[in-house]
Amino acid sequence: MKKQLLLTAMAVLCLSVAGFSQTKGTNALSFGVNVTTDKTNENLPTESTTKNSSFSLGYGYFIQDNSKIGVELSYGTNKYNFSGTAQETKSYGGNVSYQRYFPLFKTLFAYAGGKAAYTYGKLEESNTQSISNQDYTSNQYAVGAYGGITWFLSKRFALETNLLSADILYSEINQSTTNTTSTFYTNKRTTFNFKSEGFINNLGFKIYVLF
């Protein structure tokens, strides 16, 4: 009898901990990191390397049980090296979002949501064989839907990954080039398209601190 009571009490405690993490009024701080490196023709004279790094910091608030709104700031770099040419694109952005959580098994939840985002990008180029300098900036606006899995490790911590996303993008690109002959030109391009990412594509993780 005592053993049964103990097991029941433990089960209730686990459920209460799981429930606390998604209840109305809970605050959530998020930290996200995603780093990938690709190399082609490794150990050959024509070897190229591309490294993508992204970092995010966000705040969320559960307006209802299992429903969260949030804001997030992000910073990312894309570094490309090939035969004396080095390019680095830096991006700065932010977004507002809404997420709805659905219980799967104990502390494991699926989520679906939407967001509106803005990203500013700037290209810096160094070419030892080039006589020109290039200046490149971009502004991108996006509205999209996304979904994934969240594991509430305890009442204070959660781990989350994004598995699916679809975005409508509008981007504006400004590009100018100068060279030793004093030639100068600018190029401004706008695009409007629909982008989707499949299952487990560009997989990244976020850590939440709940309080």
Automatic annotation (TrEMBL):
Residues 10-175 form the Outer membrane protein beta-barrel domain. Gene3D superfamilies: 2.40.160.20. InterPro entries: Beta-barrel_OMP, OMP/PagP_B-barrel. Keywords: Signal. It comes from the Bacteria. Residues 1-23 form the signal peptide. This is Outer membrane protein beta-barrel domain-containing protein.
